[in-house]
Design goal:
The chain has one helix and eleven strands, in the order E-E-E-H-E-E-E-E-E-E-E-E. The protein is mainly beta and 226 residues long.
Length: 226
């Protein structure tokens, strides 16, 4: 059993000014842990581990098709894009760690081809993810391959109903894969998203900046991500 813990920081700026906008369009964000970050202020977060009841007992076969369709998320609220990304994050870890593991060679980057994913209300273009087996380390008492991954300048578009968003995503992180049974012991994700947004009642496009961090770990792992 695995869980993903997430930290999200959001800032909104005028395209013509570096001054942050005071109010965020809150219906856009529904996350397990949310931190709004404005300027040099300390991020203000929801309590860590806030229960999302609609995700309780949610499970799936990684080979199940249609994981990017609304029908796959029966019971999820309409405005739950950020919690859906938890599932997609897990799928990414599984894909990178399992599908390509046998193709990796120590310290030799493996560049994957581009791919497009139709999201509910949008699209994500994965430009050229790169995986590199950088070494061997211990995790959860097991000897693991340490795999670093990165993908930059990925195109992202979303239509939330009230706003149309277009921009780019850059993400990177590390995955620990057991050499004994090829199971994922831990994964980390960092993602920066920069998008243009037009808010109702405001003139001109604003720049929406989001930075998020997620940790994929075994449920019995006592370590809490920082």
């Amino acid at each position: 059993m695995f869980i993903i813990r997430k930290l999200l920081r959001i800032s909104l700026h005028s395209a013509a000014s570096e001054s942050p906008i005071t109010h965020l369009p809150t219906p856009m964000f529904d996350v397990l842990e949310q931190c709004a970050h404005r300027g040099n202020e300390r991020p203000r977060c929801r309590p860590e581990g806030a229960l999302q009841k609609y995700m309780e007992d949610f499970s799936y076969d990684p080979a199940t098709p249609g994981k990017f369709q609304n029908s796959f998320f029966a019971g999820f609220p309409e405005n739950s894009m950020q919690t859906k990304t938890l599932v997609w994050d897990a799928g990414m870890f599984e894909l990178f760690a399992r599908k390509y593991f046998d193709k990796l060679k120590l310290n030799e980057p493996l560049e994957l081809g581009p791919s497009d994913f139709a999201l509910p209300g949008g699209n994500f273009s994965n430009r050229k993810p790169t995986l590199t087996w950088v070494g061997v380390s211990q995790m959860n008492g097991k000897k693991c391959a340490v795999i670093q991954y990165e993908a930059f300048f990925n195109k992202l578009s979303l239509n939330t109903g009230a706003q149309n968003l277009n921009g780019r995503s850059d993400y990177w992180g590390t995955i620990w894969v057991s050499l004994a049974d090829k199971q994922i012991e831990k994964g980390t994700l960092n993602e920066g998203v920069l998008m243009g947004i037009v808010l109702p009642g405001q003139v001109g496009q604003k720049a929406l900046s989001i930075f998020r961090q997620a940790t994929f770990c075994r449920r019995n792992d006592p370590a809490e991500p920082k």
